[in-house]
């Protein structure tokens, strides 16, 4: 099997690449990335197993010619490339549209002319916007940010491929956990960095706002299982926990007993989005999390250099 990963040098892509290279039934993993996020940690400080099966192509989604060439002979595509700038998801519509919308459109055009058998698209629960009630896979999308709108438009392009190949849209919760190519704009990762290095975290709003989360190891498992198993094509929510900021602080206080926290605009009640864990995907793939949040964060803590 030959696999192509767009945005493969990123946070999720780095973890997925390592996992796929370990499989004997994978002939080649092609990482297609324009390095706009300067994720050079992908290339340094560690050696991938079966590295002879890894191919890197520095390319852009909007370069249709190089994209079509990269897809030649590929069986499975993971579309992970995206512009994500939490918490500034509503700052610049063009910033998100260029990649999340039109970049996905270019990929879909190229896939329509290819012989790819399976497309796995990393979407986002942000397409639901905000809700006082827990959302499910049957909830109508209602994005409230430029980022969420661009991801929904990306989904609309991917839907065109349903009759041509096995197509999966995974609406992922906020991803967290240690990885070689870290993202520190995501809330849990940022809090862990601030707690470990500064002894204090900054909380915007009253801290009661809730979000859906999934650990990067668990998400990587889901992505891998879909590629190598018979899974009904469709749109799925992929989340593991619903946590408020204050829930997170309670656990972090157990890990860092001297932790201080500072509220900014504490009078504000920020947008909330909780997502049901009862996904139709769970009946097809077992991705039960055996670890507690505290255990996951303790593991994260051990990864810091000091």
Automatic annotation (TrEMBL):
UniProt xrefs under SUPFAM superfamilies: NAD(P)-binding Rossmann-fold domains (SSF51735)
Domain of life: Bacteria
Pfam families for the chain: Epimerase
Record domain NAD-dependent epimerase/dehydratase: where: 3-237
InterPro entries, per database record: Epimerase_deHydtase, NAD(P)-bd_dom_sf
Family statement drawn from the similarity comment of this UniProt entry: Belongs to the NAD(P)-dependent epimerase/dehydratase family.
Name this protein carries in UniProt: ADP-glyceromanno-heptose 6-epimerase
Native source species: Mangrovivirga cuniculi
């Amino acid at each position: 099997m030959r696999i192509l990963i767009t945005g493969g040098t990123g946070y999720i892509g780095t973890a997925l690449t390592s996992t796929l290279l370990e499989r004997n039934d994978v002939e080649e993993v092609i990482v297609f990335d324009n390095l706009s996020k300067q994720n050079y940690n992908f290339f340094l400080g560690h050696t991938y197993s079966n590295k002879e099966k890894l191919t890197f192509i520095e390319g852009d989604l909007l370069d249709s010619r190089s994209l079509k060439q990269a897809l030649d002979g590929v069986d499975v595509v993971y579309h992970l490339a995206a512009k994500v700038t939490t918490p500034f998801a509503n700052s610049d519509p063009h910033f998100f549209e260029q990649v999340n919308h039109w970049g996905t459109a270019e990929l879909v055009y190229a896939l329509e002319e290819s012989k790819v058998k399976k497309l796995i698209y990393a979407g986002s629960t942000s397409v639901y916007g905000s809700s006082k009630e827990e959302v499910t896979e049957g909830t109508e999308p209602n994005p409230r940010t430029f980022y969420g709108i661009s991801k929904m438009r990306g989904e609309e392009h991917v839907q065109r491929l349903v009759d041509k190949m096995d197509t999966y849209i995974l609406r992922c919760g906020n991803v967290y956990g240690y990885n070689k190519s870290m993202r520190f704009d995501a809330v849990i990762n940022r809090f862990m960095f601030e707690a470990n290095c500064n002894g204090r975290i900054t909380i915007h709003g009253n801290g009661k706002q809730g979000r859906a989360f999934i650990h990067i190891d668990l998400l990587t498992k889901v992505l891998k299982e879909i590629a190598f198993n018979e899974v009904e094509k469709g749109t799925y929510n992929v989340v593991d926990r619903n946590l408020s900021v204050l829930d997170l602080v309670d656990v972090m206080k157990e890990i860092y007993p001297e932790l201080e926290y500072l509220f900014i605009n504490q009078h504000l009640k920020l947008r909330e989005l909780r997502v049901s864990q009862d996904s139709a995907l769970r009946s097809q793939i077992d991705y039960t999390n055996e670890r507690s949040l505290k255990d996951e964060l303790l593991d994260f803590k051990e990864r810091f250099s000091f």
